Amino acid sequence: MPHFRSRARPGAPAIWRTQLCGVPERGCTTVESLSDHVPDHVSDHVPDHVSDHVADIGNRPIHLGLGATAEVEPEFTGAMSWYAGYVDRHAADGAEGRLVTMHVFTESWDVWEMHPMGSEVVLCVDGRLTVHQENVDGTTAVATLEAGQYVINEPGTWHTADVEITATALFITAGVGTEHRPR
Predict the structure, then answer these.
(1) Given this model, what pLDDT does residue 53 score?
(2) CB–CB of 143/167 below 8 Å?
(3) For the residues 45-59, what does the mean pLDDT come to?
(4) Are 131 and 143 in contact (CB under 8 A)?
(5) With contact defined as beta carbons under 8 Å apart, do 20 and 2 qualify?
């Protein structure tokens, strides 16, 4: 079964230049659009104007819900009332729901947070981010992440982060019951 791997090419946006990779012995073939390799029964469901469905993850987080659904969330404000609204909108998904957000940090966090109901993935996409963890068993860990690296905060792990200059991180969070405490 083929898999897809992004590969930027000079003069072409990375989103449209992709390699279709099959059996390792056969290598990869560069294609201009994945739609050339999508079966007809699938491509019938791809919208003609993909740009109509584009949202900025920095402003419009995503909720991953039950039944493998994905929903664009209202514009992110950063206020606790936004998070309360998120919990209200997706309460039926319980601990299985995931909030996907991306944030740019120019300074270290001033709080610790903990997600009791599920793991959180922290993926650094730009810059450098140092994540500090206090695990349920009392052990501590420190992970310094650079672009493309991630760490997982297990359920019940208190965590915070330091930023040297600037860092951008993508979070996939089981947010039900999230708690905060001062740093």
Answers:
(1) 74
(2) no
(3) 68
(4) yes
(5) yes
